[in-house]
Design goal:
Blueprint lengths: L5 H54 L4 H16 L13 H8 L1 H10 L25 E8 L19 E11 L5 H12 L35 H11 L4 E11 L17
Antiparallel strand pairs: 1-2, 2-3
Helix pairs in contact: 1-2, 1-5, 5-6
Length: 269
């Protein structure tokens, strides 16, 4: 076997160094693409959850508890595999067993989160959601067409009398892909001008000593009086990497509005 020439050895070493420098970026592109695809799925389910929450309020006099429970039930599949592993095919024995027991398994998953809290570390539950233990959804409501002057909307059945329930739902979607969740969370904070990231090393390109993520000219959107941005920054600081997915839905009230359900227009968080 002939020995490699110094030139060949140098080229091999250069290729190795280049591969090492570009590896974090390649890993992030793969993991980031996977995380973005999961976020797109979660956004579709958030629209569905907003519909379910609005409908629950429409048929239950605007009851916040029912609205919150309806939203959580719709969103559980986006962050928790309540059917377990090994049930990808419903035609197999595991799939058929899980399918027949799915209602009970979903009920158990819901029971651990029915207080609108992730079942993560520090929660009363078994720690199913990793580090996440804060609220799953925020629900902000409005009655379009006027409020009510009595304990119940007495004019509900009058011709021309219309009350619409308008709901804004914020789903604190947990980013579950390691490394991608850390990088993307800091990108989000910089993009919404909540916090700059100027760490000693760029997590994507190790050759760059300064990431220099100083934000952009785009201001934070869907800001609920500053609470949304503050909550996002606070969760990321606690290593609970999330992204707020926001959607709205409006539906006519199918039952009379009851004032006791509207002491505040924001449901408990």
């Amino acid at each position: 076997m002939s020995a490699r020439s110094p030139r060949e050895a140098g080229e091999s070493g250069q290729a190795l160094v280049e591969a090492a420098l570009s590896l974090p970026l390649v890993v992030f592109l793969v993991l980031g693409a996977l995380q973005l695809s999961l976020m797109m799925q979660a956004r579709v389910m958030t629209h569905y959850a907003a519909f379910r929450a609005t409908r629950a309020g429409s048929v239950a006099h605007g009851d916040c508890e029912r609205m919150t429970h309806a939203a959580i039930l719709a969103l559980i599949p986006t962050f928790h595999s309540f059917l377990g592993t090994g049930t990808g095919s419903l035609n197999g024995p595991l799939g058929r067993a899980a399918g027949s027991d799915a209602p009970r398994m979903l009920a158990n998953a819901f029971a651990a989160r029915m207080n609108n809290r992730y079942a993560g570390s520090g929660s009363p539950g078994p720690g199913l959601d990793g580090a996440h233990n804060r609220s799953i959804v925020w629900i902000l409501r409005d009655i379009v067409g006027g409020g009510i002057d009595s304990p119940q909307d007495r004019d509900f059945d009058r011709p021309g009398h219309l009350r619409r329930l308008e709901v804004q739902l914020v789903f604190w979607y947990p980013l579950r892909i390691p490394f991608a969740n850390w990088v993307m969370s800091r990108m989000f904070l910089a993009h919404f001008r909540l916090r700059s990231y100027t760490g000693a090393a760029n997590p994507l390109l190790l050759a760059e000593r300064d990431a220099n993520w100083n934000g952009s000219d785009v201001t934070a959107v869907h800001d609920l009086d500053g609470e949304l941005g503050a909550e996002l920054a606070d969760r990321v600081n606690a290593r609970q990497y999330v992204f707020p997915i926001i959607t709205t839905f409006t539906m006519r009230m199918m039952t009379p509005v009851k004032s006791r359900h509207f002491a505040t227009m924001t449901c408990p968080r």
